[in-house]
Design brief:
By secondary structure, the protein is of the alpha+beta class. The protein has ten helices and 21 strands. Strands 1, 6, 9, 10, 11 and 13 form a six-stranded mixed sheet that branches. Helix 4 runs parallel beside helix 10, helix 5 runs parallel beside helix 7 and helix 7 crosses helix 8. The model has no long low-confidence stretch (mean pLDDT about 95).
Length: about 400
C-alpha cells in the first residue's frame, strides 16, 4: 500500500501485457517486445532493434473499480539532431473499450539520432515518471492502457485506489499484422489512432501489431515469429520498405515473398492470410530507391534517388511490387483458398492523396490513418470482407 496517497501497488506481470510477443525483465521493470528473444538475436541493425521495442499496439489490461490509476514507467524517447523534440508520447486509457483519458510521462531516456541515413544515435539516461488518470467511473470496469507507440517503455509500477483483478478473455478473434512505419503508426497522434488500432476497434478484433518502422523487409526471423504466434487472421503489408531501402531486385524479391509465406503457413496452414501491397506513394510509384531525406525547404520530406530506366534491370518500384504480389497470390491461391490479395491503393489511392496528401511524401497524417483504417475495416472486416473461416 502506498500510504502517502492511499494507493495500492500491484506487481505488473507479463500476462497483463497484450500485443507483445515477449517481455524482458530489466533493472527497472518490464520491457515489452514485439519480437521474441530468438528473433532479436538475429536483428542486423539498430533501426529494427528500436522499432520492435517501441510498443505499438501493446497495452496493459486489467479490471478494477479504481477511480485513480497511476502507471510508473521509464520511457526512451527519440529525437533527430537539429530538429525540435517531439511531444511526449501519449498513454491512452480505455474504459470498457472506449477512450476515457490520456496522459503523458515527462523526462526519461533520450535517444538522439545523429545521422538520419545510418541511424547512429547517442543515448542520455533519465529518470522514470508517472502517467496519472483520475476521476474514472467508480464501478467495475475493464481497463486498457495503451503504451506510447513510438516510445520504448519500461513498465515499473501500477498504483490504484482499488484492487486490481486479471482481465478475462473477451473472446475476440486475434488479428496479427505486419507492416512498415505506416503500420507502426508514424504520424498518428496517439496509440489508439494508428490505422491498425482503429481498424481493429472497428472490426472488433484483438490486435497484435508487428509494424516495424523501416523494417518490413521480409526478414525470415519475422516470418518465424508470425508462424509461432496464435492468430485468427494474418495480414502482411509488403513493399514500401523494400523500395525505400533499395534492398532487393526482382530476382530476389519473388522467392523472398514465397519463403515468407511458406514459413507462416508452417504454423498457420489454413488461417486467412491477406497480402497487402503498398498504399499510393507518388515519389516511389515508378522511381526506385533508395529513399533519402530532403530538407531543402526547411521541412522533412523524402525523395527517391533511383533511375526509373533501371526497372528493366530488375530495380523495384511500388508498381513493380504490386504487379508481382498480385501474380504471386493468384498463383498460390490455386492451392490455398485462404490466401487473399488487397491492393494498397484501395486503402489509400489517388483520390485520398488529393484530399489528404502525405505531409512528408511517405507517411499519412492522423486523418490519413483514419481513412486507411476505415477502408481496411470495410474491405476486410465488413459484411462483404474477409471472413474468419
Amino acid at each position: 500500500m502506498n500510504t502517502e496517497q492511499n494507493l495500492i501497488t500491484t506487481t505488473v506481470t507479463a500476462d497483463m501485457l497484450r500485443g507483445a510477443l515477449d517481455v524482458e525483465r530489466t533493472a527497472h521493470g518490464l520491457l515489452p517486445h514485439r519480437l521474441p528473444a530468438q528473433a532479436r538475436r538475429q536483428i542486423p541493425d539498430d533501426q529494427l532493434a528500436v522499432a520492435e521495442a517501441q510498443p505499438s499496439g501493446v497495452r496493459l489490461v486489467f479490471r478494477t473499480r479504481a477511480t485513480t490509476i497511476e502507471l510508473e514507467t521509464l520511457p526512451t524517447k527519440r529525437v533527430y539532431r537539429g530538429f525540435p523534440a517531439p511531444a511526449d508520447g501519449v498513454y491512452d486509457l480505455l474504459v470498457d473499450g472506449r477512450l476515457a483519458a490520456q496522459a503523458t510521462v515527462a523526462g526519461g531516456n533520450l535517444r538522439t539520432i545523429v545521422d538520419m541515413v545510418t541511424q547512429a544515435a547517442e543515448l542520455r539516461e533519465g529518470l522514470p515518471g508517472t502517467a496519472r488518470f483520475t476521476d474514472l467511473p467508480p464501478r467495475d470496469k475493464a481497463i486498457e492502457i495503451w503504451l506510447p507507440h513510438t516510445e520504448i517503455t519500461e513498465v515499473i509500477a501500477l498504483r490504484t485506489d482499488a484492487p486490481v483483478e486479471s482481465a478475462t478473455d473477451d473472446g475476440r478473434r486475434v488479428w496479427l499484422h505486419h507492416g512498415s512505419s505506416i503500420s507502426h503508426g508514424s504520424n498518428a497522434d496517439h496509440p489508439t489512432a494508428t490505422w491498425p488500432a482503429l481498424a481493429a476497434a472497428q472490426g472488433g478484433v484483438d490486435l497484435v501489431n508487428l509494424g516495424f518502422s523501416g523494417s518490413a523487409l521480409l526478414d525470415p526471423f519475422t516470418a518465424r515469429a508470425m508462424r509461432d504466434t496464435p492468430a485468427d487472421l494474418i495480414s502482411i503489408k509488403i513493399g514500401i520498405n523494400i523500395v525505400n531501402a533499395d534492398a532487393m531486385r526482382l530476382r530476389a524479391f519473388t522467392p523472398a515473398v514465397h519463403g515468407f509465406l511458406d514459413t507462416i503457413r508452417e504454423g498457420h496452414p489454413t488461417t486467412p492470410l491477406l497480402v497487402v501491397s503498398p498504399i499510393l506513394c507518388p515519389v516511389q510509384e515508378d522511381t526506385p530507391g533508395p529513399l533519402m531525406p530532403d530538407l531543402s525547404d526547411g521541412t522533412l520530406r523524402f525523395k527517391a534517388m533511383g533511375d526509373p530506366a533501371e526497372r528493366a534491370a530488375g530495380r523495384l518500384t511500388l508498381n513493380v511490387i504490386r504487379d508481382e504480389l498480385a501474380r504471386i497470390v493468384q498463383e498460390r491461391a490455386a492451392d490455398d483458398s485462404n490466401l487473399h490479395y488487397l491492393d494498397g491503393r484501395d486503402l489509400y489511392g489517388e483520390k485520398d492523396y488529393a484530399e489528404l496528401p502525405l505531409p512528408d511524401e511517405v507517411h499519412p497524417d492522423p486523418a490519413g490513418h483514419r481513412r486507411i483504417a476505415e477502408n481496411f475495416a470495410r474491405l476486410v472486416f465488413g459484411a462483404e470482407g474477409l471472413s474468419f473461416t
